[in-house]
Amino acid sequence: MKKLVLSLAFLSLVVFYSGCNTGSDATAVNNEVAKARVTEYLNYMVAGQTDKMQDFIAPSYIQAANIDFSRDKINTYFPKGFVIDEAYKSTDLSNAINVVVRLKYDGGEFLNKLTFVVFNDNGKVVFYPGNYDPNSKYLDPWYRAESINQ
Description:
- The protein is of the alpha+beta class.
- Helices cover 28% and strands 31% of the residues.
- It has helices at 2-20, 31-47, 59-64; strands spanning 73-74, 81-89, 96-104, 110-121, 124-127, 131-133, 138-140, 144-147.
- Strand 2 and strand 3 form a beta hairpin.
- The longest helix has 19 residues, at 2-20.
């Protein structure tokens, strides 16, 4: 009898947790969804449309960091173009995808490599920023930035 109760309890937990990740409002974040979201963001970045960039930042991060976009700004390198190099399961944040891009500048040079961490924040596919400096009032929407040596 004890074995039956334990088996039913285990089965109940499996059914419960498998149902937790499903639902009509859940947006699955896979490599293609993540790359599409980063591409959309980078198109705004290239066009210099900084007013549209704040919609890509995780609302939970904005709240936790006490970010106010009437006071704080989103950092942008104002590139001329970009190339998405890869997307893979994030090691930085669970249930997220890392998307690695290179930014192209005047003369076609690639000078920066950015890693965006893309995840689902309460039904919205957004980025987990890597840095917010309350002193300078700038937020980096990417998680990691590296200089590319030419």
